[in-house]
């Protein structure tokens, strides 16, 4: 007797789950409610066509205001987010996500950094859970389960109004008991104090697994900058007399899947983007006002999640070289996003950044 052909659950197996999608053309996601607006940012263009012809394709988020992108009653899971806005807003729009009515956000990240674009300039990114396509089409495929409610907002802390196009697709169905909540945290050291390490997450409590890292790194010294190790302190590591991590890599470029300084002989720094890791952005000095090199790197721990039972902290060293083949402690501009799943809807997170701390300069 032949054995059944194995199928990917999300591709061919039928389900009783309900699919819904929220956009400016259907702000509630209700069935049969899409494309019915009579007013919106496209109303003037549709004046000869009327209702149903792209009357409301986007929203305006005024300076200093917060827009609600989605208010969803669960249980369910957000499956895909597509969003775009002008690059000048990528660091000044704060994306927040709240799960199950928690007043504290699980996600609080500048929108550009959430999609691995912290420098306000486009670079193609083709990965398993984040795809960024010409010219600034941001796509997220992170699974975001919730049990009773999901709320997604954008706060504009910049000086100018932002026009934002978006679509959020989700499924309404029971969530497995073991499903964790997605968290994402942003931090920046500009510059990193000499002798310090850049913290990605610190003091996270609960059971979960770490799934992703993005670094926006600007060098403030000449020479190679990526000798620093990425270190994961799991559970009781921080409580030991001799504080050492359980997981310790061998260098920054090694952690992101490269080698030998990302330097292809004859070509120099060489960008790459793959399903799980990449150096997708290399910004070089232009001989005028852009004097420093800047980089964007990501790694998704999807096949290799880093699991913890009750506590997690993660940091990365900033090391270059000096004379005598000695390490040089660097004072670079380093921003990061850390993604992890947790058994609770909120945990310790850094203070909300202000506009000056977010500014690309």
Structure description:
β18 (263-264) and β19 (268-269) form a beta hairpin. The strands form 5 sheets. Strands 3, 5, 6, 11, 13, 15, 20, 21, 22, 23 and 27 form an 11-stranded mixed β-sheet that branches. The N and C termini lie far apart (67 Å). The chain has helices spanning 111-114, 252-255, 355-358, and strands at 18-22, 59-61, 66-73, 76-84, 93-99, 107-110, 125-126, 130-133, 137-140, 144-146, 149-156, 162-172, 181-189, 198-205, 208-218, 230-234, 247-248, 263-264, 268-269, 272-273, 277-283, 294-300, 306-308, 311-316, 319-322, 326-329, 333-342. The chain is mainly beta and 361 residues long. The radius of gyration is 22 Å and the shape is globular. It is built from 3 helices and 27 strands.
SSE arrangement:
Blueprint: E1 18-22, E2 59-61, E3 66-73, E4 76-84, E5 93-99, E6 107-110, H1 111-114, E7 125-126, E8 130-133, E9 137-140, E10 144-146, E11 149-156, E12 162-172, E13 181-189, E14 198-205, E15 208-218, E16 230-234, E17 247-248, H2 252-255, E18 263-264, E19 268-269, E20 272-273, E21 277-283, E22 294-300, E23 306-308, E24 311-316, E25 319-322, E26 326-329, E27 333-342, H3 355-358
Parallel strand pairs: 6-13
Antiparallel strand pairs: 1-12, 2-12, 3-11, 4-9, 4-10, 4-12, 5-6, 5-11, 7-8, 8-9, 13-27, 14-24, 15-22, 15-23, 15-27, 16-17, 16-24, 18-19, 20-21, 21-22, 25-26
